[in-house]
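anyone seen this seq b4? input:
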Amino acid sequence: MSSARDQVQRLLALVPYLRENDGARVDDVAAEFGVRPKQIIADLKVLWFCGLPGAQMGDLIEIDIDAAEGDGVIHLNNADYLARPLRLAADEALALLTALRTLREVTAGQDRDAVDRAIAKLEKAAGEGAAAIEGSAAHVHVEPAAPEIADLVNRGLAGKRRMHLTYDVPSRDETTERDVDPMRLVVSEGRSYLEAWCRLAEDVRLFRLDRIAAAKLLDLPSEPPPEATPRDLSNGMFQPSEQDLLATVKLEPPARWVAEYYPMESVEEAPGNSLVVKLRVADTAWLQRLILRLGGTATVLDPQDLGKQIAETAREALSAYDDQLP
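predicted toks r here
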């Protein structure tokens, strides 16, 4: 199904497209616009009765419907007043520029050159609004990866080749070696990731590009198994699971922001303007780093063993500073 709004937008783009591609096949036009061939036929039958306000029958757009339905080719005439394609509105140009600038940070070599050319054309097309768009899009930032890593990852994806990664895992303070079948590049929360089927973990994994210490293309095809489906990242990188540890943490006023920044199972007000929150934790080392970073304004109430372990780590860190004092 195609909504009326979608159809109007498509019709406005369809006329200049058909004027530049006389005799285009219905199937090809449908593929270009992402709809079924029968929808294109329906669009043509609407265009057949379109023209400028006050126009007579002879002034309407002319379409050879018989050729479209019978031979599958489209001929359109008498639409010179719609020769130019739609211009992007300022917010549309901004959105497209932002996406291109983000894409630029995860590409390399010829791909990055192509993105740069697209950005230059879009800025030129934006005309007088280019400066405003440039300023608005300047906030886009993605943590950079080594150019040679970005280039190899892009080549692996384009060529559908398996890769060998040397990958740093800060949470375990170790470097691992693994073969992966690349699936896609994603950008989330200012960082770029390679999503791939990991043959070491036998599961889909996300690898931060700036943590890939080395990469090598293998002479093997990338063949993720049928169960290797891309993750839904619409709600952020961290997706809590029922199998993850459920931790209870007390947040003092300076740490209340944590309840808004991370996914929570529950949030309750507590005396002294503090909060008691419950959250799922896949990696206890991550929670330990968070609590230590909050500098005494957060306490793990449950599991108690984890809370005691974090408190002991904090005491050891403080004693190390005491030993260095004169």
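The first strand starts at residue 24 and ends at 25. Residues 4-82 form a domain with the Arc Repressor Mutant, subunit A fold (CATH 1.10.10). kinda curious what u guys think
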